[in-house]
Amino acid sequence: MRSAMAFLSVLFVAGWMAPAALGQPATGPRAADTASPEAIVAALYDVISGPAGQARDWDRFRGLFAPGARLVPAAPRKDGAAPVALSPDDYAARANDAFLKAGFFEREVSRKADGFGTIEKPFARGINSIQLMQHGGRWWIVTVMWDQERPDNPIPAKYLEGRLP
């Protein structure tokens, strides 16, 4: 009876941990990608940016995110529905064909950051709100939420102060 309970306990723990383990790529990000808040944001933009026809390194992309991380396009939807939170896999599947067809470049023009202890929140032009966490000797992306600059939604001047070159 005891050995059956121990076996069931092991199965429970293995089953509980499996989704997080399966969500992480075998290759993961480059070590330099996760060394600092600046490095992980730069790696994020590097992975998603490129000309039409250039394949993205989605394994590197997935490796930047903590298990359970979400990407949220918060711009108003044409159908009026609430924004849908995407997993890194959902985002890669949704963006891949569009990026291959038309290209896409993300570049910060300015950044405001706030942090405490093991958390950091860069707020960058786009506008991207990114939540980061330091754990296990590296930085992880926990959430990326963004809205689009558009005629009825210009970037406020306070976010354009201290523009990056």
Structure characterization notes:
The protein is built from 4 helices and 5 strands, in the order αααβαββββ. It is α+β, with helices and mostly antiparallel strands. It has a single domain (2-159), classed as Nuclear Transport Factor 2, Chain: A (Roll), CATH 3.10.450.50. A 5-stranded mixed β-sheet has the order 1-5-4-3-2. The longest helix is centred in the N-terminal third of the chain and has 21 residues, at 2-22. The N and C termini lie far apart (67 Å).
At the first level of CATH, the class is Alpha Beta
Helix content: 25-40%
Major β-sheet strand ordering: 1-5-4-3-2
The largest sheet is: 5 strands, mixed
Distance between the termini: 67 Å
| CATH fold call | Nuclear Transport Factor 2, Chain: A
Q: SSE order in H/E notation?
A: HHHEHEEEE
Taking all Cα atoms into account, the compactness measure Rg is 19 Å
Strand residue percentage: 15-25%
CATH architecture: Roll
Mean pLDDT: 81
Unreliable stretches, pLDDT < 50, 5 or more residues?
1-26
Please state the structural category: alpha+beta
